Amino acid sequence: MNLSSGVKLNNGIEIPYIGLGVFKAEEGDETYNAVKWAIEAGYRHIDTAAIYKNEVSVGKAIKDSGIAREEIFVTTKLWNEDMRQDNQLKAIDVSLEKIGLDYVDLYLVHWPVKGKYVESWKKMEEIYKSGKAKAVGISNFNIHHIEDILAASDLVPAVNQCECSPELTQVELADYCKQKGIIFQPWSPLGQGNTVKHPKILAIAEKYGKTAAQVILRWGLQRGFVNIPKSSKKERIVENSKIFDFELNDEDFKELFTLNTDKRYGPDPETFAF
Ligand code: NAD
């Protein structure tokens, strides 16, 4: 297994287990360089969103890399305001134009916007059928949100991208997704840089001669998840990719679950107001 290894989504498309997240990376040099360094390090998966406002730099770095389009898995997301304004079908075109691609590999409903997420999922079906996204999925959906869309549509989301780390293990939601054939994709796997300071994780990391970030990402991998850690620093981008050369033993793997306090560093899907 290596950086281009992946798992098959429920429609047969493969998603690499590790992707570079670019949330809060500025359009321009910061995003461009992060994506460039990631691709040089062997990453073949980039996670952006319309609201990150850096799709142009993501696309430019991919193009300049010289790597064939079909070898890089690109995710972007439908923003909440585009759902509220019934702009779903135009929003994907705007993203494609900015990234400079004919299709994205994965298009996600970014948040379950009240009163809009079921109808937005119906629009995702159209987008999927148009070929503008090779797979479609959801983000920040809890079980009841997923049940609502499954009651209204035969299309099962390929992915559910949600906050998840050793401080927010999401066991029930991840098990539910697995049972439905939805790949679970943790966001903020490193707790936005906080969870990497946890003393118990640092102690485990020392035993393996690895860093706390690598231990957390390896734990996610051993759970069968697709991780999208973010960094704009070259050394950390490389560090976060080196998780395929060790394995957490059963005891350490289980120990990480005991750190759960349901701590969120980002908004809660039940109460977000944007
Ligand atoms: P993260 O948990 O990946 O943490 C990133 C931060 O951790 C960095 O800014 C840096 O400060 C620190 N860091 C990174 N690598 C490190 C290392 N090796 N050692 C020590 N510190 C390190 O947080 P995130 O960016 O919020 O989440 C990852 C990605 O998930 C995002 O970039 C984005 O693509 C996606 N995301 C999606 C949603 C959503 O609603 N779907 C929300 C937030 C993030």
Features:
alpha/beta; 7-stranded parallel sheet; two-stranded antiparallel sheet; globular; binds nicotinamide-adenine-dinucleotide
Q: What value does the Rg take, in angstroms?
A: 18 Å
Strand content: 5-15%
**Extended strand count:** 9
SS class: alpha/beta
Mean pLDDT over the residues: 98
Number of domains: 1
Major sheet characteristics: 7 strands, parallel
The CATH superfamily bears the name: NADP-dependent oxidoreductase domain
CATH topology: TIM Barrel
Taking pLDDT < 50 over at least 5 consecutive residues as the criterion, the unreliable ranges are: none
Please give a quick description of this structure.
With 274 residues, the chain is α/β, with parallel strands linked by helices. The protein is 40% helix and 15% strand.
Overview of this protein structure:
This protein is an alpha/beta fold. The chain has one domain (6-194, 223-242): NADP-dependent oxidoreductase domain (TIM Barrel, Alpha-Beta Barrel). 40% of the residues lie in helices and 15% in strands. The protein contains eleven helices and nine strands. A seven-stranded parallel β-sheet has the order 3-4-5-6-7-8-9. The protein has a two-stranded antiparallel sheet with strand order 1-2. Helix 8 crosses helix 9. The chain is globular and about 50 Å long. The structure holds nicotinamide-adenine-dinucleotide. Residues 21-23, 47, 110, 139-140, 161, 187-193, 196, 211, 213, 228-231, 236, 239-240, 266 line the site of nicotinamide-adenine-dinucleotide. The site of nicotinamide-adenine-dinucleotide has 26 residues, from helix 10.
